[in-house]
Amino acid sequence: MSSSPQPPPPQPAGDGGAVATVAGVLLTATTVDAALAALAGAGAGALYGGLTLKSKVERLAWRGALGIVMSHPPGQEGFHGAAGRNVARVNLMRRAQFTVSAAKRLSQDISRGISTLQPVATALNAGLQRERRFYGQHLLAIWNRQKAGSQADSAAMTHGDLLGWHTVIDGRTSAECRQADGRNFYVGEMPKIGYPGMVHPHCRCWPGKPFRDGDLLDAY
Ligand SMILES: [Zn+2]
Asked: Which of 43, 51, 65, 135 could, after both became Cys, cross-link 102 (CB 3.0–4.6 A)?
C-alpha cells in the first residue's frame, strides 16, 4: 500500500434502528430504486435523527449513499462455514452503518450547498467523491474479513472447531495480536478482536492447530 489514506470518520452512536433497517434493505433489495422504496416503506418517521426520506435533499442523499454501497457489493464467497457466516453478518452491519452515515453527510453537503447558493449537483458530486473514497477503505476491510473468515473455516476442516491463534512476533506485531498469540478460539464464535488476519490492515495472524491448555479468547 502507498501512503496511508485518511480513515473514514467514526460512526456516530445512536443510529441502531436506522442501521438495522438499512441492513435488512441491503440484504434484499437488488436496485437502488427498490432499496429507496423499501426504506420509504419501512416508514420510520426519522431514519436517522432528522434525516427522513421526505424531502428532496434527503432522497438525494439516501440515493447517493445507497448507490455507492450497492454498486460495490462485497462479493460472494464460494464456501461459507461458521466463520464465513459470522463475518458476513459483521460486513452487512458495517455496510449499513456506512450507508446511514454517508446519507447524513451527503444531506449536510447538499443543505450547505443550497444555503451558499451553490448548485445542488456541485455540492452533491463533491460529497459523492468523498464517500466513494471512504467506502473504498471499508471495502478493503470487508475483503480482509472475508479472507480471514474463509481461512478460519479451512483451518477448522483440518484441525476441528477449536483453533489456535498464531502470529509472527517481531517489532511490528500489534499489542492485540501479540496478546492473542498462543490462545484458542472456536471457529463458530468470533473472538472480540475478530478472526486471525482481520485485526487490522496487514495483520499477519493465522488460524491453526489449537494450543494445548491455551486460554480461550473472549468471544462475542
Ligand atoms: Zn494480527
From this structure: 65
pLDDT per residue as tens digits for the range 118-139: 898 999 999 999 999 999 999 9
Helix H or strand E segment including 163: strand 162-166
Q: Which three cell numbers stand for residue 45?
A: 418517521
Helices (H), 160-209: 175-180
> What 8-state DSSP symbol labels residue 116?
T
Interatomic CA distance for residues 207 and 188, integer angstroms: 13
Q: Between 178 and 12, whose confidence is greater?
A: 178
Distances in Å between the Cα of 136 and the Cα atoms of 6, 59, 87, 219 are: 11, 23, 18, 28
Ligand 1 geometric centre to CA of 200 (Å): 7
Residue 220 lies in a domain: no
Are 131 and 55 in a shared domain?
A: yes
The pTM assigned to this predicted structure is 0.84
Which residues fall inside 5 Å of ion ligand 1, going by CB?
A: 177, 199, 203, 205
Angle CA 27–124–45, to nearest 5: 50
Cα 168 to ligand 1 centre (Å): 8
User: Among all chains, which residue has been given the C-alpha cell 498464531?
Assistant: 166
**Separation CA 111–CA 167 (nearest Å):** 48
**Amino acid letter for position 176:** E
Tell me: pLDDT of 77 over 60: no
